[in-house]
Amino acid sequence: MRALVVEDQVLVRDAIAKRLRASGHAVDEAIDGATAESFVRSYTYDVWVLDRQLPDGDALFRLKAWREQGLTTPALFLTAFDRVSDRLSGFEVGGDDYLVKPFDMDELLARITAIARRGSTIRPSVIRIADLEIDIGRREVRRSGIALPLRNKEFVALQLLAERAGTVVSRSELIAGCWGEEHQPASNAEEVLIASLRRKLGAPSLLRTVRGAGYILDAADGKATS
């Protein structure tokens, strides 16, 4: 999934982002509501993690405005406010979960995963392309019934390509989906990732490079172009 973490405490934000990335997710980070607004207007996320107390105001009002604009991305509030009335106010504006600081990182990851899954009901849990089967929930991939051991980034890239099967995913979209907009990898990272993924998927090739455009996953039998 792709997450937006909005938190002004650097150590807290870094810890959350590091944990999500270690679990194979793409993360964008914002220090205040204005930066978060820019990200939300530009990109689509599977979940928002919002600190209530931001330098430019309560994130409660940002979420309220986004909901009024029709944005339905699942949102989890982080806050030092622990009164029942504070939690209720978060739910009233459209929050999906509420975690009081200090919190356990394992619990945060579990809650983020749970609300992101609830918000992604329109996505199939299993995607099949020819003899390739991608089980999103179990994070398992099989081809002709044989399990393929993929690393986190390989699975994220494959899921992104599979959800848009038959259409070209650009290099920039792949990088944003796998690493996040601000967490730029090495210059050839996506090429190395695609090469490894293509090798593990085996023959006949389902993953093709479209010169000057990006990558495409489909059932067409053909060699990738360089």
Ranges where pLDDT stays below 50 over 5 or more residues in a row are 222-226
Mean pLDDT: 84
Sheet-strand content, in percent, reads: 15-25%
How many E-type strands?
Answer: 13
Which percent range fits the helix content? Answer: 25-40%
N-to-C series of helices and strands = EHEHEEEHEHEHEEEEHHHEE
Widest sheet: strand ordering: 2-1-3-6-7
Describe this protein with a few key phrases.
226 residues, alpha/beta, 4-stranded antiparallel beta sheet, 8 helices
3D architecture notes:
This protein is 40% helix and 22% strand. The chain has 226 residues and is α/β, with parallel strands linked by helices. It has a 5-stranded parallel β-sheet with strand order 2-1-3-6-7, with helices on both faces. It has a 4-stranded antiparallel β-sheet with strand order 8-9-10-11, covered by helices on one side. Strands 4-5 form a two-stranded antiparallel ribbon. Helix 6 packs across helix 7 and helix 6 crosses helix 8. It starts with a strand and ends in a 9-residue tail after the last strand. The C terminus is likely disordered.
What order do the helices and strands come in, and which of them pair?
Blueprint: E1 2-6, H1 10-22, E2 26-30, H2 33-42, E3 47-51, E4 53-54, E5 57-58, H3 59-68, E6 75-79, H4 84-92, E7 97-100, H5 105-118, E8 126-129, E9 132-135, E10 140-143, E11 146-147, H6 152-163, H7 171-179, H8 189-201, E12 207-210, E13 214-217
Parallel strand pairs: 1-2, 1-3, 3-6, 6-7
Antiparallel strand pairs: 4-5, 8-9, 9-10, 10-11, 12-13
Helix pairs in contact: 6-7, 6-8
